[in-house]
């Protein structure tokens, strides 16, 4: 992806209530990135551009025309990921969706909350700009991936995550995007098999048209271009971890290789480390 190129799209949700939202997927490593394509559900704008702000200006015009539709904002603090209930909602929503992938996954790891990733997500959300954070702001003990969502009005975290997952309709396992340029990157990151830690945050941006900026970081990062068609291994749920299964998700996994890291999960002790060396910490 060219450093100055952004994939930008503006959509109306399936159940439109007066708010509009923007999302932006992230792919790894450098390489050709598909442009956004028209979705089947009521697109306003979909384009691959080098000047994000030009497109944002167009979006602002549209949003002003819809302004009289916008509902009253709910209590912003209710969305804060400093709250345990919101952390649990985010993790549980992801795990429910990861359990339900079709075809089923034999190596899908159960997700958990990661506080350092959440802190990084908050630091970036506070900047109130719909661009991906630099790699240096997406690092815990490993490099993390990222999904973004920006809206004119508040959405629940479950709705935000579901909007990313809904790109499943553009995806076919083993092939990738069903049509050239179809956007799938949010979906593939949500269901990337070894992105087992997540941290999210939301910021209120009063001086922006899109006032709610949601950021989730996924560790270790997914969306490797070389395997974007297969974000997990197809098979019987927990087929690769029969002795460590939690309702279709793996709680521990002996050795998973992804993006030059080895994920070591040690028996009875949980995740230990992501190493560039092949040495187990167990």
What are the SSEs and their pairings?
Layout: E1 6-11, E2 21-24, E3 43-49, H1 52-66, H2 84-99, E4 112-113, H3 115-125, E5 145-151, H4 157-165, E6 171-172, E7 176-177, H5 185-190, E8 197-204, E9 212-219, E10 245-246, E11 249-250, E12 256-258, E13 261-266, E14 270-275
Helix pairs in contact: 2-4
Summarize the structure.
The chain has helices spanning 52-66, 84-99, 115-125, 157-165, 185-190, and strands at residues 6-11, 21-24, 43-49, 112-113, 145-151, 171-172, 176-177, 197-204, 212-219, 245-246, 249-250, 256-258, 261-266, 270-275. By secondary structure, it is an alpha+beta fold.
Describe the structure.
This is Cysteine rich secretory protein 2. InterPro entries: Allrgn_V5/Tpx1_CS, CAP_dom, CAP_sf, CRISP-related, SCP_CRISP. Residues 1-18 form the signal peptide. Belongs to the CRISP family. It comes from Amazona collaria (yellow-billed parrot). The chain has 282 residues and is α+β, with helices and mostly antiparallel strands. The protein has a single domain (6-241), classed as 3-Layer(aba) Sandwich (Pathogenesis-related Protein p14a). Helices cover 20% and strands 23% of the residues. It is built from 5 helices and 14 strands. It has helices at residues 52-66, 84-99, 115-125, 157-165, 185-190, and strands at 6-11, 21-24, 43-49, 112-113, 145-151, 171-172, 176-177, 197-204, 212-219, 245-246, 249-250, 256-258, 261-266, 270-275. The chain has a 7-stranded mixed β-sheet, with helices on both faces. Strands 12-13-14 form a 3-stranded antiparallel β-sheet, with no helix packed on it. A two-stranded antiparallel sheet has the order 6-7. A hairpin with a 3-residue loop joins strand 13 (261-266) and strand 14. Helix 2 (84-99) runs parallel beside helix 4. The longest helix has 16 residues, at 84-99. The chain is globular and about 50 Å long. 41% of the residues are buried. The model is unreliable at 1-21, 30-72 and 253-282 (pLDDT under 50).
